Amino acid sequence: MNIETADYGTSLVILIMAAVTLATRWGGIFVMSFVPINYRVQQFITAMSGSVLVAVLAPLAVKGDNGARWALLITAIVMLILKKPLPAIAAGILAAALARQF
């Protein structure tokens, strides 16, 4: 399927992506409204967030450049020291920028 992007095609693509995003978000909330949140479900949800984070970061650590590796290392160190995500993320971004600059 090809959508012409010269006229209104770009806007159409953006609207379709927005509709799909809203459908998946609202659909998840709708489905979870039928699931009782007990202790086991709570543990599953907590474990899933960590699993998704590892799934995103592991390939970056293995196949990323030195800037990515420095960013991961500095972010982890700052997070362990400060226990606050925002300064850790900022330090990781700064580390990646500096490593790629030099």
Describe it for me?
81% of the residues lie in helices and 0% in strands. The chain has a domain at 52-101. With 102 residues, the chain is an all-alpha fold. The protein contains four helices and no strands.
Write the layout of secondary structure elements.
Blueprint: H1 9-32, H2 39-63, H3 66-82, H4 85-101
Q: Which properties best describe this structure?
A:
102 residues; mainly alpha; single chain; 4 helices
Give me the count of strands.
0
Distance between the amino and carboxyl termini: 44 Å
Low-confidence stretches: none
Order of helices and strands: HHHH
Oligomer: single chain
Total helical elements: 4
Short note summarizing the structure:
With 102 residues, the chain is mostly helical. It has a domain at 52-101. The chain is built from four helices and no strands.
